[in-house]
Amino acid sequence: MKYAYYPGCSLSGTGLEYNISTQAVAPLLGIELCELPDWSCCGASSAHLQDHTLALALPARNAALGEEQGLSLAIPCAACLSRSKAAEHAVKTSEDMRAQIESLIDRPYQATYPVKSILEIFIDAGLDTLKENIIKPLTGLKVASYYGCLQARPTDFMDVDDPENPQTIDTIVAALGAEPVSWSHKTECCGNSHPIAYPEVGGPLVNRILEQAEKSGADCIVCACPMCLGNLDMRQKALGKKRGRPFNLPVFYFTQLMGLALNLRPKKLGLKKHFISPIPLLSKKDLLKRIKIKKVKNKPADTPVPASESTETPTPNPDNKKGGPA
Amino acid sequence: MNTVNITSTLAEAQRIRQDLKTKYDADVGKCYQCGKCSAGCPVAFAMDTPPHKVIQLAKLGLYDEMMECHSTWLCATCHTCSARCPREVHPSRIMEGLRIEARNQGSVKVRPLDIFHTKFMKLVGKRGRVYEMALMLGYNLSVGRPLKDAGFAPKMILNKKLSLFPHTTSKARKEVRKIHERYNRMSNTPHPDQTSGGDTP
Amino acid sequence: MKKVGVFVCHCGTNISQTVHCEKLAEAAKTLPGVAFSTEYKYMCSDPGQTMIKEAIAEHGLDRVVVAACSPRMHETTFRKCIDSGGLNPYMLEIANIREQCSWVHSDKDKATAKAGDLVNMAVAKVLKNEQLPSSFIPVHKRALVIGGGIAGIQAALDIADTGYHVDLVEREPSIGGKMAQIDKTFPTMDCSACILTPKMVDASQHPNITIIPYSEVEKVDGYVGNFDVTIRRKASYVDSVKCTGCGLCSEKCPSKKIPSEFECNLGTRPAIYSPFPQAIPNKPVIDRENCRYFKTGKCKICARVCTADAVNFEDQDEMVQIRYGAIVVATGYTLYDHSQYGEYGYGHYKDVISGLEFERLVNASGPTMGKIKRPSDNTEPKNVVFIKCVGSRDKARGHDYCSRACCMYTAKHATMVRDKIKDSQAIIFYMDIRTPGKNYEEFYLRGVEEYGVTYVRGRVSRIYEEGEGENRKLIVQGEDTLLGKQVFVDADMVVLATAMEPQPDAAGFARKIGISYDQNNFFSEAHPKLRPVETLSAGIYLAGACQGPKDIPDTVAQAGAAAAKVVALLSKDEMETEPIVAKVDTDRCSGCGFCIPICPYKAISFTDLTERVHGSVAWGPTGKEVKRQVANVNNGLCQGCGACTVNCRAGALDLLGFTNEQILAEVDSLW
């Protein structure tokens, strides 16, 4: 399946590891992601607090660009996804709003190609395909799946499987061989931009989630949003200090865990870019070592690239890789 | 505690209800004040007026008091209230709407939050994409805490998570600027570049 | 010369504030055929009716138009009125200027103009009305009560006491219904079993009552006075005549761990079981799904230990057909399933239970022998939270309506917690406290004042579990809307007052027996105020919560009322039927048979018509007798719906009282 990949602003900055892990994992599951040319910011959590129409026009532009190519947008960031879905919903339900949006972006936009989250795309690709490709099951890793608000709500246009107890990330986690824990704060809010812009209010929100994840017995948290990860990862140290007992809950993007199980190099997954380093946990669980695969010569690799592969840049298509054991 | 005579405010209540309905697709008239919105609100601990009371102010037509609430500004738009509302009132849309209204009237109740979002939108208007370094620096300078979260910066820069240079394309920049221009013509408000809200580096 | 009288009713201000009644009456005078016209404040009242009767006599009226409310409301009233005024009751037409005019419009001039049109139409129609004769059908003096809960038991007893025979059909192995599961009853706190079981015994011993347990109504044919009902007796695998009810089989049954429906799955039962010790009849049935013999082909222990040789593994479902004059539907309710409620844990938290489950926990004959213990670890809960309106008054998750009984039973539960558990706290989250019954408010206040029950006004947003084993807590996150503060409770157990809702098969059942149901699938009464226990299908009555949520006192009262209606019907040897039925013009009928499948009441069939052919025709000799098939309407079965008339291509079918000619006259009057 081919998608117009919409990374969004965060993924070239704070959410870099989400970007590289997504791009590394997707081709292994037969998903082709072509970056949408000239994409622009969706307005994130800011635009809709300032103007309703503008906040719909900004994401609509990107979806319209995708539509011109005949492609659905593939969106990793939950905030971008939420805004794009909002625009799609508005266009589908109000002729009037569609006309306003189209005149603002100066392009037609019919919402013909549904915008999709990377999570949804991976689920659609089939958990069986994923399982078949797993080389290193994440056995023994207890994972708290954190969805946050934007994957689950608003319920009128986010078609989540279950707004109170979503399962999509959990099913992926389970497919990877890890153990998804059942816990209470899957969809509690991490504070959106509050932890950055208003830490007095944002801090306690992050703290609640971390404490519940800790109580659930999870080794780590996994999420699908750069804003959530930023909040949960960056604020952990300070919040631990504040409560007088450090937190130690590495926070992953689900694509990083997928990459690990698919035997990708930790570096290609950005595993060293976190504030709470996951490396000690992963080595304790013996999940860092790559499994060596014997390669049939003269055949393009359709299995994950071997251990000594040296190139760093994420490659959209592993078939192009000529590298074998050096 | 001040008292209030609601004989004359109920006409205003009708106007507020209609306004919220047409502009934000949320009907305060359906609310039966069960308080489930406030019960589940993650930010309620910091609010001066819990969401159900904001709605009650609307229902009684106490406009000024409603617009004074800091709560609308603190709302994290997590939509928990709307997801669980038994009457389908959509409190989160009401909070969002009231905040937009207040902002349009120039009445900002929680300044740091507004500065953050204004900065954000200004960057979007200018560059088409957001460049986090500029956002954080601009925000810190505006709230007068230049070193806020600065401890994170070195590691982030090292990890290439905080780019020193803006990334965008000229087409994205131009088209988003155009969207803003058209939008401003439509609503007669100036481009975010011309509004106050601090500098962009 | 036809003489029409027009009588315009003000209905107090219901009509007159939107319609100029005087002008309307005045304008009617100019209509062709109208000999008299007047208006009055309440035409249905005694002076109003007298006015009509006097006008008939004085002006020699031979037909009447009443412009008033819906015919569903007062058509019968005015038919009786003109009947006693000396006219055939079907020489009446109602112009509905209330529901179809004044109530739905606001502009008085336009509404008056529309009312004028409605009166025009009624006058045009009444001019074509013909005297319709009533016919009489015999009444079969036996009643059927469907559902053996308190509603059905009460209705059966009340009917049986007047001397008529009643069959009481119950689909479970025992009568008793939900009331048998309840511990105590508000506001008197008498033991539910103590007031219900004697009634169950009365019903079983009453010479005029036959209890048909473990059976379901399959089909209802026929009509008022003569319903032919097919009842399926489900195979129970125990011969109820031979069985002595000794209970040895249940005792020896090796499959004992089956969740008991009666105990709300909090206790267990064997595969051959009677739902509870006081069951009536106290004869066990075999649960085929869970029986070892039926699953593996081996066991038969029950048969071996039975001294009466009552176990019969060859038993089959059996259909019986019985004729009844009247039917009472008392099929009761079920409870909203809170596993739909994600924020309260989807039913996954063992210690979040429903009110009915609480009844079993607190019941002396329940699984915990009346000691309140939380299901997860059988410890005594200290902090118990009650949440009202779960699934009720909740458009988004459940039902719009109020379930009526929950405020009271929650007050009862909380009082019992405080009474039975030392150092306990009972916290009720509520939105409103509704106590509209005799001594109800006092009961609720006693809970607050004497037992120290705490009420917090606000809906709970969510419940989540924390901790393991004995330290397991349910964190209840709510709001005290009066304080404007978020409140948390570390609860040991949470009791949800789940909504009362219709039985899951209510709509299908209603269609099966031919009664109507509302948007919530509760069965519809004929009129919410004036005919609350009747259905729109003559001879079928409603009792209890199948008609809408209600508590025990209301259910018993309604059951009594339904019984009175049944008795009134059965007391007649024959009853008058509505002459508004379809009529076949056999000359026109081509015998195509299209009307037969369209009739929902199976009232039309073919009949042979023999006629002599006159004159010369191409297809046969003249003067010869020929036989042909034509449609024939059974007046007893026909409900006058008119479906056949619109389907008849030859125009041979007409609905008396609504003939094609009458309808077209109405239409023509508008142009």
Give the secondary structure arrangement, pairings included.
The complex is a heterotrimer of chains A (326), B (201) and C (671).
Chain A: E1 2-5, H1 16-25, E2 32-35, H2 44-47, H3 52-69, E3 73-75, H4 78-93, H5 95-105, E4 116-117, H6 118-124, H7 127-133, E5 142-145, H8 168-175, E6 179-180, H9 194-197, H10 199-215, E7 220-223, H11 226-234, H12 236-243, E8 251-253, H13 254-261, H14 279-284
Parallel strand pairs in A: 1-2, 1-3, 3-4, 5-6, 5-7, 7-8
Helix pairs in contact in A: 1-13, 3-4, 3-5, 4-5
Chain B: H1 10-24, H2 36-40, H3 51-60, H4 63-68, H5 71-74, H6 80-84, H7 91-104, H8 111-127, H9 132-142, H10 153-158, H11 170-187
Chain C: E1 4-9, H1 21-28, E2 34-40, H2 46-59, E3 63-68, H3 71-84, E4 92-96, H4 98-102, H5 108-126, E5 135-138, E6 142-146, H6 150-161, E7 165-169, E8 184-185, E9 190-191, H7 192-205, E10 209-212, E11 215-223, E12 226-233, H8 248-252, E13 258-259, E14 268-269, E15 272-273, E16 285-286, H9 292-296, H10 301-305, E17 318-324, E18 326-329, E19 333-335, E20 352-354, H11 355-362, E21 383-390, H12 406-420, E22 425-430, H13 440-449, E23 454-457, E24 462-466, E25 473-480, E26 485-491, E27 493-498, E28 500-502, H14 506-513, E29 540-542, H15 552-570, E30 574-577, E31 582-584, H16 595-598, E32 604-612, E33 625-633, H17 643-647, E34 653-655, H18 660-669
Parallel strand pairs in C: 1-2, 1-3, 3-4, 6-7, 6-18, 7-10, 18-29, 20-27, 21-22, 21-27, 22-23
Antiparallel strand pairs in C: 5-30, 8-9, 11-12, 12-17, 13-14, 15-16, 19-28, 24-25, 25-26, 31-34, 32-33
